[in-house]
Write a structure and sequence with these properties.
Blueprint: H1 21-30, H2 32-42, E1 52-57, H3 72-81, E2 86-88, E3 95-97, E4 100-105, E5 111-116, H4 130-141, H5 154-160, E6 172-178, E7 182-187, H6 194-197, H7 208-213, E8 220-221, E9 226-227, H8 230-234, E10 242-248, E11 252-257, E12 270-275, H9 279-288, E13 293-295, H10 302-307, E14 311-314, E15 319-325, H11 330-333, H12 335-344, H13 347-354, E16 360-361, H14 384-393, E17 400-408, H15 418-430, E18 434-442, H16 443-453, E19 459-465, H17 475-479, H18 491-501, H19 506-523, E20 526-531, E21 535-538, E22 542-544, E23 559-560
Parallel strand pairs: 1-12, 1-13, 17-18, 17-19
Antiparallel strand pairs: 2-3, 4-5, 5-7, 6-7, 8-9, 10-11, 11-12, 13-21, 14-21, 15-19, 15-20, 16-20, 22-23
Helix pairs in contact: 1-9, 12-14, 18-19
Length: 562
Protein backbone atom coordinates (compact mmCIF):
# COMPACT_ATOMS: atom_id res chain seq x y z
CA UNK A 1 0.00 0.00 0.00
CA UNK A 2 3.55 3.81 -3.95
CA UNK A 3 2.36 0.20 -4.24
CA UNK A 4 1.79 0.31 -0.54
CA UNK A 5 1.23 2.89 2.21
CA UNK A 6 4.09 4.61 3.97
CA UNK A 7 6.40 2.67 6.18
CA UNK A 8 4.53 3.95 9.21
CA UNK A 9 1.59 1.78 8.27
CA UNK A 10 1.89 -1.35 10.34
CA UNK A 11 -0.83 -3.46 8.95
CA UNK A 12 1.99 -5.49 7.46
CA UNK A 13 2.91 -5.87 10.73
CA UNK A 14 5.45 -4.58 13.24
CA UNK A 15 5.68 -7.50 15.61
CA UNK A 16 7.07 -7.21 19.11
CA UNK A 17 9.64 -9.89 19.82
CA UNK A 18 8.91 -12.20 22.73
CA UNK A 19 12.05 -14.26 22.57
CA UNK A 20 14.10 -16.55 20.40
CA UNK A 21 12.53 -19.45 18.57
CA UNK A 22 13.73 -22.10 20.97
CA UNK A 23 12.35 -20.18 23.93
CA UNK A 24 9.03 -19.67 22.18
CA UNK A 25 8.66 -23.34 21.41
CA UNK A 26 9.45 -24.31 24.97
CA UNK A 27 7.05 -21.71 26.32
CA UNK A 28 4.25 -22.82 24.03
CA UNK A 29 4.66 -26.44 25.09
CA UNK A 30 4.91 -25.56 28.76
CA UNK A 31 1.65 -23.63 28.58
CA UNK A 32 -0.21 -26.59 27.15
CA UNK A 33 -1.23 -27.94 30.53
CA UNK A 34 -2.46 -24.52 31.65
CA UNK A 35 -4.58 -24.16 28.53
CA UNK A 36 -6.12 -27.58 28.94
CA UNK A 37 -6.95 -26.68 32.54
CA UNK A 38 -8.62 -23.46 31.44
CA UNK A 39 -10.67 -25.36 28.91
CA UNK A 40 -11.83 -27.89 31.47
CA UNK A 41 -12.89 -25.14 33.83
CA UNK A 42 -14.74 -23.24 31.13
CA UNK A 43 -16.38 -26.31 29.66
CA UNK A 44 -19.36 -28.19 31.06
CA UNK A 45 -17.66 -31.56 31.50
CA UNK A 46 -19.14 -34.92 30.49
CA UNK A 47 -17.78 -34.73 26.93
CA UNK A 48 -19.26 -31.31 26.20
CA UNK A 49 -17.47 -28.80 23.98
CA UNK A 50 -14.52 -27.02 25.55
CA UNK A 51 -15.46 -23.38 25.24
CA UNK A 52 -12.00 -21.76 25.47
CA UNK A 53 -10.43 -21.10 22.08
CA UNK A 54 -6.71 -20.35 21.90
CA UNK A 55 -5.41 -18.65 18.76
CA UNK A 56 -1.73 -17.88 18.16
CA UNK A 57 -1.10 -14.25 17.21
CA UNK A 58 2.13 -13.29 15.45
CA UNK A 59 2.47 -10.20 17.65
CA UNK A 60 0.72 -8.03 20.18
CA UNK A 61 -1.88 -5.71 18.72
CA UNK A 62 -0.67 -2.18 18.15
CA UNK A 63 -3.63 -0.84 20.14
CA UNK A 64 -7.06 -1.87 21.45
CA UNK A 65 -8.60 1.27 19.93
CA UNK A 66 -9.37 0.36 16.30
CA UNK A 67 -9.61 4.00 15.23
CA UNK A 68 -5.83 4.20 15.79
CA UNK A 69 -5.03 0.77 14.34
CA UNK A 70 -3.99 -0.46 10.92
CA UNK A 71 -2.31 -3.81 11.67
CA UNK A 72 -3.81 -7.26 11.29
CA UNK A 73 -3.35 -8.37 14.89
CA UNK A 74 -5.12 -5.27 16.25
CA UNK A 75 -7.95 -5.84 13.79
CA UNK A 76 -8.24 -9.54 14.67
CA UNK A 77 -8.98 -8.57 18.27
CA UNK A 78 -11.15 -5.60 17.26
CA UNK A 79 -13.47 -7.73 15.14
CA UNK A 80 -14.43 -9.71 18.26
CA UNK A 81 -15.15 -6.64 20.42
CA UNK A 82 -16.45 -4.06 17.93
CA UNK A 83 -18.95 -3.97 15.08
CA UNK A 84 -19.44 -1.40 12.36
CA UNK A 85 -22.48 -0.06 10.61
CA UNK A 86 -21.47 -2.24 7.68
CA UNK A 87 -20.06 -5.77 7.65
CA UNK A 88 -19.28 -8.19 4.83
CA UNK A 89 -21.24 -10.96 3.19
CA UNK A 90 -19.93 -14.30 4.54
CA UNK A 91 -16.93 -15.52 2.59
CA UNK A 92 -16.66 -12.36 0.47
CA UNK A 93 -15.31 -8.82 0.57
CA UNK A 94 -18.68 -7.33 -0.38
CA UNK A 95 -20.48 -4.97 2.04
CA UNK A 96 -23.51 -6.19 4.00
CA UNK A 97 -25.73 -4.78 6.77
CA UNK A 98 -24.48 -5.09 10.35
CA UNK A 99 -25.39 -2.45 12.94
CA UNK A 100 -27.11 -0.60 10.11
CA UNK A 101 -29.94 -2.77 8.80
CA UNK A 102 -30.16 -0.73 5.59
CA UNK A 103 -29.05 2.55 4.01
CA UNK A 104 -29.95 4.94 1.23
CA UNK A 105 -27.54 7.07 -0.77
CA UNK A 106 -28.55 10.26 -2.53
CA UNK A 107 -28.15 10.58 -6.29
CA UNK A 108 -25.16 12.89 -5.90
CA UNK A 109 -23.42 10.41 -3.59
CA UNK A 110 -23.11 12.91 -0.76
CA UNK A 111 -25.85 11.91 1.68
CA UNK A 112 -26.06 8.46 3.28
CA UNK A 113 -28.98 7.66 5.60
CA UNK A 114 -28.61 4.58 7.83
CA UNK A 115 -31.50 2.71 9.48
CA UNK A 116 -30.01 1.25 12.64
CA UNK A 117 -30.58 -2.04 14.40
CA UNK A 118 -32.77 -1.47 17.46
CA UNK A 119 -32.26 -2.75 21.00
CA UNK A 120 -28.48 -3.02 20.74
CA UNK A 121 -26.30 -1.97 23.68
CA UNK A 122 -22.59 -1.47 24.09
CA UNK A 123 -20.88 -3.85 26.50
CA UNK A 124 -20.96 -1.16 29.24
CA UNK A 125 -24.75 -0.88 28.98
CA UNK A 126 -24.70 2.34 26.93
CA UNK A 127 -27.40 2.27 24.21
CA UNK A 128 -26.23 1.99 20.64
CA UNK A 129 -28.21 4.61 18.74
CA UNK A 130 -27.93 7.37 16.15
CA UNK A 131 -26.32 9.74 18.65
CA UNK A 132 -23.58 7.17 19.28
CA UNK A 133 -23.02 6.83 15.54
CA UNK A 134 -22.57 10.59 15.17
CA UNK A 135 -20.31 10.68 18.22
CA UNK A 136 -17.97 8.22 16.50
CA UNK A 137 -17.94 10.04 13.15
CA UNK A 138 -17.40 13.38 14.85
CA UNK A 139 -14.61 11.93 16.99
CA UNK A 140 -12.67 10.88 13.87
CA UNK A 141 -13.27 14.22 12.17
CA UNK A 142 -12.05 16.14 15.22
CA UNK A 143 -8.72 14.32 15.63
CA UNK A 144 -5.91 16.82 16.17
CA UNK A 145 -2.13 16.91 16.09
CA UNK A 146 -0.45 13.53 16.14
CA UNK A 147 -3.87 11.85 16.17
CA UNK A 148 -4.05 12.69 12.45
CA UNK A 149 -0.76 11.01 11.58
CA UNK A 150 -0.77 8.01 9.26
CA UNK A 151 0.96 6.05 12.01
CA UNK A 152 -2.20 6.42 14.11
CA UNK A 153 -5.35 7.27 12.15
CA UNK A 154 -4.08 5.66 8.96
CA UNK A 155 -7.44 4.66 7.53
CA UNK A 156 -9.32 7.84 8.31
CA UNK A 157 -6.45 9.97 7.00
CA UNK A 158 -6.06 7.98 3.78
CA UNK A 159 -9.77 7.57 2.99
CA UNK A 160 -11.37 10.73 4.38
CA UNK A 161 -8.42 12.98 3.50
CA UNK A 162 -8.98 15.82 5.96
CA UNK A 163 -10.15 16.90 9.41
CA UNK A 164 -12.15 19.69 10.96
CA UNK A 165 -9.05 21.87 11.14
CA UNK A 166 -8.43 21.22 7.41
CA UNK A 167 -11.96 21.17 5.96
CA UNK A 168 -10.80 22.05 2.44
CA UNK A 169 -9.39 18.51 2.11
CA UNK A 170 -12.07 16.63 4.04
CA UNK A 171 -14.45 14.07 2.53
CA UNK A 172 -16.63 14.02 5.68
CA UNK A 173 -18.88 16.99 6.46
CA UNK A 174 -21.40 16.14 9.18
CA UNK A 175 -23.60 13.58 10.90
CA UNK A 176 -27.14 14.09 12.23
CA UNK A 177 -29.45 11.88 14.28
CA UNK A 178 -33.18 11.50 13.62
CA UNK A 179 -34.44 9.86 16.76
CA UNK A 180 -32.56 6.80 18.01
CA UNK A 181 -32.60 4.65 14.91
CA UNK A 182 -31.70 6.86 11.95
CA UNK A 183 -28.35 8.53 11.32
CA UNK A 184 -27.50 10.61 8.27
CA UNK A 185 -23.87 11.11 7.24
CA UNK A 186 -23.20 13.93 4.78
CA UNK A 187 -20.00 14.04 2.75
CA UNK A 188 -18.33 17.16 1.39
CA UNK A 189 -17.30 15.37 -1.79
CA UNK A 190 -18.25 12.05 -3.40
CA UNK A 191 -16.42 8.94 -2.27
CA UNK A 192 -17.61 5.88 -4.18
CA UNK A 193 -16.09 3.45 -1.68
CA UNK A 194 -17.70 5.05 1.38
CA UNK A 195 -20.16 2.27 2.25
CA UNK A 196 -17.68 -0.54 1.60
CA UNK A 197 -14.99 1.24 3.64
CA UNK A 198 -17.22 1.22 6.73
CA UNK A 199 -16.66 -2.54 6.99
CA UNK A 200 -13.10 -1.80 8.18
CA UNK A 201 -12.51 -2.38 11.91
CA UNK A 202 -11.04 1.13 12.07
CA UNK A 203 -14.60 2.42 11.71
CA UNK A 204 -16.16 0.15 14.32
CA UNK A 205 -18.68 1.73 16.67
CA UNK A 206 -17.26 2.44 20.13
CA UNK A 207 -19.06 3.39 23.33
CA UNK A 208 -19.01 7.20 23.71
CA UNK A 209 -19.34 6.71 27.46
CA UNK A 210 -16.27 4.47 27.71
CA UNK A 211 -14.20 6.66 25.40
CA UNK A 212 -14.89 9.68 27.57
CA UNK A 213 -14.41 7.82 30.85
CA UNK A 214 -11.03 6.37 29.86
CA UNK A 215 -9.70 9.34 27.83
CA UNK A 216 -9.61 7.62 24.46
CA UNK A 217 -8.16 10.69 22.75
CA UNK A 218 -5.35 11.17 25.26
CA UNK A 219 -2.52 10.28 22.90
CA UNK A 220 0.91 11.41 24.11
CA UNK A 221 4.41 11.09 22.70
CA UNK A 222 5.14 11.57 19.01
CA UNK A 223 3.63 10.31 15.77
CA UNK A 224 6.54 7.86 15.40
CA UNK A 225 6.38 6.75 19.03
CA UNK A 226 2.87 7.37 20.39
CA UNK A 227 1.83 6.54 23.95
CA UNK A 228 -1.51 4.76 24.07
CA UNK A 229 -4.46 6.19 25.97
CA UNK A 230 -5.85 4.34 29.02
CA UNK A 231 -8.79 3.32 26.81
CA UNK A 232 -6.52 1.83 24.14
CA UNK A 233 -4.50 -0.09 26.72
CA UNK A 234 -7.28 -1.78 28.61
CA UNK A 235 -10.84 -0.48 28.28
CA UNK A 236 -12.20 -1.03 24.73
CA UNK A 237 -16.00 -1.22 24.61
CA UNK A 238 -18.04 -2.15 21.55
CA UNK A 239 -21.22 -4.04 20.68
CA UNK A 240 -19.54 -7.28 19.58
CA UNK A 241 -19.99 -10.85 20.83
CA UNK A 242 -16.87 -10.71 23.05
CA UNK A 243 -15.75 -8.24 25.68
CA UNK A 244 -12.21 -7.40 26.71
CA UNK A 245 -10.83 -8.94 29.93
CA UNK A 246 -7.04 -8.70 30.09
CA UNK A 247 -3.89 -7.88 28.12
CA UNK A 248 -0.53 -9.26 29.27
CA UNK A 249 1.72 -7.42 26.83
CA UNK A 250 4.07 -9.81 25.04
CA UNK A 251 2.09 -12.81 26.27
CA UNK A 252 -1.63 -12.86 25.52
CA UNK A 253 -4.98 -11.10 25.34
CA UNK A 254 -8.09 -12.59 26.94
CA UNK A 255 -11.69 -11.97 25.88
CA UNK A 256 -14.93 -13.48 27.17
CA UNK A 257 -18.45 -13.86 25.83
CA UNK A 258 -20.70 -10.78 25.92
CA UNK A 259 -23.76 -12.14 27.73
CA UNK A 260 -25.90 -9.27 26.43
CA UNK A 261 -24.91 -9.65 22.80
CA UNK A 262 -27.81 -9.00 20.41
CA UNK A 263 -26.89 -11.86 18.05
CA UNK A 264 -25.80 -15.50 18.20
CA UNK A 265 -23.38 -15.95 21.10
CA UNK A 266 -21.95 -19.20 19.68
CA UNK A 267 -19.99 -21.97 21.36
CA UNK A 268 -16.80 -20.07 22.20
CA UNK A 269 -17.04 -18.46 25.65
CA UNK A 270 -13.42 -17.45 26.15
CA UNK A 271 -10.76 -16.41 23.62
CA UNK A 272 -7.04 -16.32 24.31
CA UNK A 273 -4.87 -14.64 21.68
CA UNK A 274 -1.41 -15.95 22.56
CA UNK A 275 1.62 -14.11 21.17
CA UNK A 276 3.97 -16.51 19.35
CA UNK A 277 6.01 -14.53 16.87
CA UNK A 278 7.88 -17.41 15.23
CA UNK A 279 6.11 -19.39 12.49
CA UNK A 280 7.72 -22.71 13.44
CA UNK A 281 6.78 -22.19 17.07
CA UNK A 282 3.15 -21.57 16.06
CA UNK A 283 3.07 -24.81 14.07
CA UNK A 284 4.62 -26.78 16.93
CA UNK A 285 2.18 -25.24 19.41
CA UNK A 286 -0.72 -26.46 17.27
CA UNK A 287 0.79 -29.91 16.97
CA UNK A 288 1.30 -30.08 20.74
CA UNK A 289 -2.28 -29.07 21.49
CA UNK A 290 -1.42 -25.85 23.30
CA UNK A 291 -3.31 -23.73 20.75
CA UNK A 292 -6.40 -24.34 18.61
CA UNK A 293 -5.34 -22.41 15.53
CA UNK A 294 -3.04 -19.94 13.81
CA UNK A 295 -2.82 -17.91 10.64
CA UNK A 296 -0.44 -17.96 7.66
CA UNK A 297 0.50 -21.63 7.53
CA UNK A 298 3.70 -22.01 5.49
CA UNK A 299 3.08 -23.84 2.18
CA UNK A 300 5.65 -26.47 3.15
CA UNK A 301 3.74 -27.23 6.39
CA UNK A 302 0.30 -27.76 4.88
CA UNK A 303 0.51 -31.46 4.09
CA UNK A 304 2.42 -32.25 7.28
CA UNK A 305 -0.36 -30.74 9.40
CA UNK A 306 -3.01 -32.62 7.48
CA UNK A 307 -1.11 -35.88 7.93
CA UNK A 308 -1.12 -35.27 11.69
CA UNK A 309 -4.89 -34.83 11.80
CA UNK A 310 -4.98 -31.04 11.78
CA UNK A 311 -7.23 -28.99 9.52
CA UNK A 312 -5.95 -26.47 7.00
CA UNK A 313 -8.46 -23.94 5.71
CA UNK A 314 -7.77 -21.56 2.84
CA UNK A 315 -9.03 -18.04 2.43
CA UNK A 316 -10.05 -17.00 -1.05
CA UNK A 317 -7.29 -14.79 -2.50
CA UNK A 318 -8.03 -11.08 -2.17
CA UNK A 319 -4.53 -9.74 -2.42
CA UNK A 320 -1.65 -9.04 -4.77
CA UNK A 321 2.04 -9.95 -4.67
CA UNK A 322 4.11 -7.76 -6.96
CA UNK A 323 7.64 -6.95 -8.05
CA UNK A 324 8.00 -3.19 -7.75
CA UNK A 325 10.26 -0.96 -9.86
CA UNK A 326 11.96 2.13 -8.48
CA UNK A 327 12.23 4.46 -11.48
CA UNK A 328 14.72 6.63 -9.60
CA UNK A 329 17.20 4.01 -10.82
CA UNK A 330 18.52 4.79 -14.31
CA UNK A 331 17.87 1.34 -15.80
CA UNK A 332 14.31 1.13 -14.48
CA UNK A 333 13.42 4.55 -15.86
CA UNK A 334 13.48 3.00 -19.36
CA UNK A 335 10.12 1.38 -20.11
CA UNK A 336 11.83 -1.18 -22.34
CA UNK A 337 13.79 -2.44 -19.34
CA UNK A 338 10.62 -2.69 -17.25
CA UNK A 339 8.90 -4.56 -20.08
CA UNK A 340 11.92 -6.86 -20.46
CA UNK A 341 11.79 -7.83 -16.80
CA UNK A 342 8.06 -8.51 -17.16
CA UNK A 343 8.69 -10.85 -20.11
CA UNK A 344 11.53 -12.57 -18.24
CA UNK A 345 9.36 -13.84 -15.38
CA UNK A 346 7.56 -17.16 -15.68
CA UNK A 347 4.69 -16.53 -13.27
CA UNK A 348 3.29 -20.04 -13.65
CA UNK A 349 6.59 -21.54 -12.50
CA UNK A 350 6.88 -19.03 -9.68
CA UNK A 351 3.43 -19.93 -8.36
CA UNK A 352 3.97 -23.67 -8.69
CA UNK A 353 7.36 -23.64 -7.00
CA UNK A 354 6.98 -21.09 -4.20
CA UNK A 355 3.35 -20.22 -3.42
CA UNK A 356 0.43 -22.07 -1.75
CA UNK A 357 -2.04 -24.31 -3.49
CA UNK A 358 -4.96 -22.23 -4.73
CA UNK A 359 -2.77 -19.26 -5.73
CA UNK A 360 -3.78 -17.53 -8.96
CA UNK A 361 -1.42 -15.91 -11.46
CA UNK A 362 -1.96 -12.13 -11.57
CA UNK A 363 -2.34 -10.11 -14.77
CA UNK A 364 -3.03 -6.74 -13.09
CA UNK A 365 -2.96 -5.08 -9.67
CA UNK A 366 -6.53 -6.05 -8.68
CA UNK A 367 -8.08 -9.49 -8.08
CA UNK A 368 -10.67 -10.73 -10.55
CA UNK A 369 -13.54 -10.12 -8.11
CA UNK A 370 -12.89 -6.36 -7.94
CA UNK A 371 -14.80 -3.89 -10.10
CA UNK A 372 -12.75 -2.70 -13.06
CA UNK A 373 -10.82 -5.93 -13.54
CA UNK A 374 -9.88 -5.93 -17.21
CA UNK A 375 -9.92 -9.29 -19.00
CA UNK A 376 -8.19 -7.71 -22.00
CA UNK A 377 -5.45 -5.91 -20.08
CA UNK A 378 -2.04 -5.49 -21.70
CA UNK A 379 -0.01 -8.56 -20.76
CA UNK A 380 3.57 -9.80 -20.84
CA UNK A 381 3.64 -13.58 -21.36
CA UNK A 382 6.85 -15.38 -20.48
CA UNK A 383 9.24 -14.88 -23.39
CA UNK A 384 13.00 -14.87 -22.75
CA UNK A 385 13.86 -13.93 -26.33
CA UNK A 386 11.53 -10.94 -26.22
CA UNK A 387 13.10 -9.88 -22.93
CA UNK A 388 16.64 -10.07 -24.37
CA UNK A 389 15.62 -8.12 -27.48
CA UNK A 390 14.11 -5.31 -25.38
CA UNK A 391 17.25 -5.14 -23.24
CA UNK A 392 19.36 -4.85 -26.39
CA UNK A 393 17.14 -2.04 -27.70
CA UNK A 394 17.51 -0.25 -24.36
CA UNK A 395 21.29 -0.38 -24.64
CA UNK A 396 21.93 -3.41 -22.42
CA UNK A 397 22.82 -6.23 -24.82
CA UNK A 398 24.82 -7.94 -22.08
CA UNK A 399 22.32 -7.17 -19.35
CA UNK A 400 23.07 -5.15 -16.21
CA UNK A 401 23.19 -5.46 -12.43
CA UNK A 402 20.45 -4.11 -10.15
CA UNK A 403 19.73 -4.16 -6.42
CA UNK A 404 16.99 -6.63 -5.48
CA UNK A 405 15.41 -5.77 -2.11
CA UNK A 406 13.41 -8.38 -0.25
CA UNK A 407 12.28 -8.91 3.37
CA UNK A 408 13.37 -11.60 5.80
CA UNK A 409 11.87 -13.21 8.90
CA UNK A 410 8.31 -12.49 7.85
CA UNK A 411 5.33 -14.28 6.38
CA UNK A 412 2.55 -12.19 4.87
CA UNK A 413 -0.75 -13.38 3.30
CA UNK A 414 0.48 -12.27 -0.12
CA UNK A 415 4.09 -13.42 0.45
CA UNK A 416 4.41 -16.47 2.71
CA UNK A 417 8.05 -17.24 1.79
CA UNK A 418 9.82 -14.09 0.53
CA UNK A 419 13.27 -15.69 0.44
CA UNK A 420 12.03 -18.41 -1.91
CA UNK A 421 10.25 -15.88 -4.10
CA UNK A 422 13.44 -13.81 -4.31
CA UNK A 423 15.54 -16.83 -5.29
CA UNK A 424 13.08 -17.95 -7.96
CA UNK A 425 12.81 -14.54 -9.63
CA UNK A 426 16.57 -13.93 -9.40
CA UNK A 427 17.26 -17.14 -11.30
CA UNK A 428 14.75 -16.20 -13.99
CA UNK A 429 16.31 -12.75 -14.43
CA UNK A 430 19.78 -14.28 -14.68
CA UNK A 431 18.54 -16.29 -17.68
CA UNK A 432 18.14 -13.03 -19.65
CA UNK A 433 21.36 -11.43 -18.42
CA UNK A 434 20.11 -9.40 -15.46
CA UNK A 435 22.24 -9.94 -12.37
CA UNK A 436 21.01 -8.90 -8.94
CA UNK A 437 22.66 -7.60 -5.81
CA UNK A 438 20.75 -9.33 -3.03
CA UNK A 439 19.54 -6.77 -0.49
CA UNK A 440 17.81 -8.66 2.33
CA UNK A 441 16.49 -6.67 5.29
CA UNK A 442 14.44 -7.46 8.37
CA UNK A 443 10.81 -6.73 7.65
CA UNK A 444 10.14 -4.23 10.40
CA UNK A 445 11.22 -1.52 10.52
CA UNK A 446 14.20 -1.71 8.16
CA UNK A 447 12.65 -3.11 4.98
CA UNK A 448 9.52 -1.00 4.90
CA UNK A 449 11.41 2.15 5.84
CA UNK A 450 13.91 1.68 3.01
CA UNK A 451 11.50 0.60 0.27
CA UNK A 452 8.61 2.91 1.06
CA UNK A 453 10.44 5.89 2.48
CA UNK A 454 13.65 6.28 0.46
CA UNK A 455 14.98 6.19 -3.12
CA UNK A 456 17.71 3.77 -2.03
CA UNK A 457 16.30 0.55 -3.48
CA UNK A 458 15.93 -1.15 -6.84
CA UNK A 459 13.46 -3.88 -7.75
CA UNK A 460 11.63 -5.13 -4.67
CA UNK A 461 9.00 -7.55 -3.39
CA UNK A 462 5.87 -6.24 -1.72
CA UNK A 463 2.15 -6.79 -1.77
CA UNK A 464 -1.22 -5.89 -0.38
CA UNK A 465 -4.25 -7.58 1.10
CA UNK A 466 -7.43 -5.74 0.20
CA UNK A 467 -9.40 -4.14 3.00
CA UNK A 468 -12.78 -4.04 1.27
CA UNK A 469 -14.18 -4.53 -2.21
CA UNK A 470 -13.37 -1.30 -3.99
CA UNK A 471 -10.89 -0.71 -6.81
CA UNK A 472 -9.48 2.40 -5.16
CA UNK A 473 -8.36 0.22 -2.25
CA UNK A 474 -5.90 -1.42 -4.63
CA UNK A 475 -4.74 0.79 -7.52
CA UNK A 476 -5.59 4.04 -5.74
CA UNK A 477 -3.41 3.00 -2.82
CA UNK A 478 -0.52 2.03 -5.11
CA UNK A 479 -0.58 4.67 -7.82
CA UNK A 480 -2.80 7.53 -6.63
CA UNK A 481 0.08 9.96 -6.18
CA UNK A 482 3.86 10.17 -6.25
CA UNK A 483 5.59 7.87 -3.78
CA UNK A 484 9.23 6.96 -3.08
CA UNK A 485 8.54 3.26 -3.59
CA UNK A 486 8.02 3.63 -7.35
CA UNK A 487 9.88 6.87 -8.00
CA UNK A 488 7.76 8.25 -10.82
CA UNK A 489 5.40 11.12 -11.57
CA UNK A 490 2.55 10.38 -13.94
CA UNK A 491 0.01 13.15 -13.44
CA UNK A 492 -2.44 11.82 -16.02
CA UNK A 493 -2.63 8.51 -14.12
CA UNK A 494 -3.00 10.32 -10.79
CA UNK A 495 -5.84 12.41 -12.26
CA UNK A 496 -7.57 9.35 -13.70
CA UNK A 497 -7.59 7.69 -10.29
CA UNK A 498 -8.86 10.81 -8.51
CA UNK A 499 -11.72 11.09 -10.99
CA UNK A 500 -12.71 7.41 -10.78
CA UNK A 501 -12.75 7.51 -6.97
CA UNK A 502 -15.46 10.18 -7.01
CA UNK A 503 -17.82 8.50 -9.51
CA UNK A 504 -20.61 6.93 -7.47
CA UNK A 505 -22.48 5.10 -10.26
CA UNK A 506 -20.96 1.69 -10.89
CA UNK A 507 -21.87 1.54 -14.57
CA UNK A 508 -19.99 4.82 -15.10
CA UNK A 509 -17.08 3.92 -12.83
CA UNK A 510 -16.34 0.45 -14.23
CA UNK A 511 -15.02 1.50 -17.67
CA UNK A 512 -12.85 4.14 -16.00
CA UNK A 513 -11.13 1.53 -13.86
CA UNK A 514 -10.86 -0.91 -16.76
CA UNK A 515 -8.93 1.73 -18.68
CA UNK A 516 -6.83 2.59 -15.63
CA UNK A 517 -5.84 -1.05 -15.13
CA UNK A 518 -4.76 -1.25 -18.77
CA UNK A 519 -2.92 2.08 -18.57
CA UNK A 520 -1.01 0.84 -15.53
CA UNK A 521 0.09 -2.31 -17.29
CA UNK A 522 1.18 -0.35 -20.36
CA UNK A 523 3.26 1.91 -18.13
CA UNK A 524 4.64 -1.06 -16.10
CA UNK A 525 5.44 0.55 -12.73
CA UNK A 526 5.79 -2.98 -11.42
CA UNK A 527 4.79 -6.54 -12.23
CA UNK A 528 1.72 -8.10 -10.60
CA UNK A 529 2.85 -11.65 -9.89
CA UNK A 530 0.15 -13.60 -8.09
CA UNK A 531 -2.88 -13.67 -5.83
CA UNK A 532 -1.75 -16.16 -3.13
CA UNK A 533 -4.29 -18.13 -1.11
CA UNK A 534 -3.47 -17.72 2.61
CA UNK A 535 -4.00 -20.73 4.86
CA UNK A 536 -4.99 -21.19 8.50
CA UNK A 537 -4.24 -24.26 10.60
CA UNK A 538 -6.60 -25.67 13.23
CA UNK A 539 -6.93 -28.50 15.71
CA UNK A 540 -9.16 -31.37 14.66
CA UNK A 541 -11.91 -30.22 17.05
CA UNK A 542 -12.56 -27.16 14.87
CA UNK A 543 -15.40 -28.29 12.62
CA UNK A 544 -15.74 -25.00 10.76
CA UNK A 545 -14.19 -21.54 10.75
CA UNK A 546 -15.65 -18.43 9.06
CA UNK A 547 -12.71 -17.84 6.69
CA UNK A 548 -12.96 -14.45 4.98
CA UNK A 549 -10.84 -12.99 2.16
CA UNK A 550 -10.62 -9.74 4.18
CA UNK A 551 -10.18 -11.55 7.52
CA UNK A 552 -13.64 -10.52 8.76
CA UNK A 553 -13.63 -13.55 11.08
CA UNK A 554 -15.63 -13.39 14.30
CA UNK A 555 -15.15 -16.31 16.67
CA UNK A 556 -18.78 -16.70 17.73
CA UNK A 557 -19.18 -18.32 14.29
CA UNK A 558 -16.64 -21.07 14.97
CA UNK A 559 -18.13 -24.56 15.23
CA UNK A 560 -16.42 -26.98 17.63
CA UNK A 561 -16.74 -30.67 18.42
CA UNK A 562 -16.21 -32.18 21.86
Amino acid sequence: MSATPPASRRRRTRARAVGATAVLVASALALSGCVQSQRTESGNGGGSVNSTFVFAASSDPKTLDPAFASDGESFRVSRQVFEGLVGTKPGTADPAPLLAESWKTSADGLTHTFELKKGVKFQDGTPFNAAAVCANFDRWYNFKGIQQSENLAYYYTSLFKGYKDKPQDAVYKSCSASGDSQATVTLAKPFAGFIASLSLPAFGMQSPTAMQKYNANAIAGTADSPQLSPYAQGHPVGTGPFKFDKWDVGQQIELSSNDNYWGDKGQVKKIIFRVIDDANARRQALESGSIDGYDLVAPADTQSLKDKGMKVIQRDPFNILYLGFNQAKKELKDIRVRQAIAYAIDKEALVKQTLPEGTKVATQFVPESVNGYNKNVTSYPYDKNKAKQLLKEAGYPNGFTIDFNYPTNVSRPYMPTPEQTFSNISAQLADVGIKVNAKPLKWSPDYLDKVQGTADHGIHLLGWTGDYNDTDNFVGVFFGHEKPEFGFTNQSLFDELTKARSVSKLDEQTPLYEKINDDIMKYVPGIPLAHPAPSLGFASRVESYPASPVQDEVFNEIKLSS
